Amino acid sequence: MSTLGVVNGVLWSVQVFLALFFLAASVPKILGRGIERWTGFSDLPRAEVVFIGVMELFGAIGLVLPMATGIFRGSRINVVVLLRRPARSEAHGA
What we know:
Layout: H1 3-31, H2 46-69, H3 73-84, H4 88-91
Helix pairs in contact: 1-2
């Protein structure tokens, strides 16, 4: 497996893992179930809690959708270039 394949697999794993956390946090806020157990949300209006939940849902979608559809395909190359950039001591021959 090439280095790019490994980096791609790691990026996918991290993105899906974070998207699941965003999704798990957004569902109770949108549905309104179990929200009383969350600290700090009892003082907020219901519309604001739903808004926060919807934004978290958009965050989950935004983590997975670009890479799944191929939009912003070039941004993945930027990550690889930054990872392969030589250290200063290597670049100056020290």
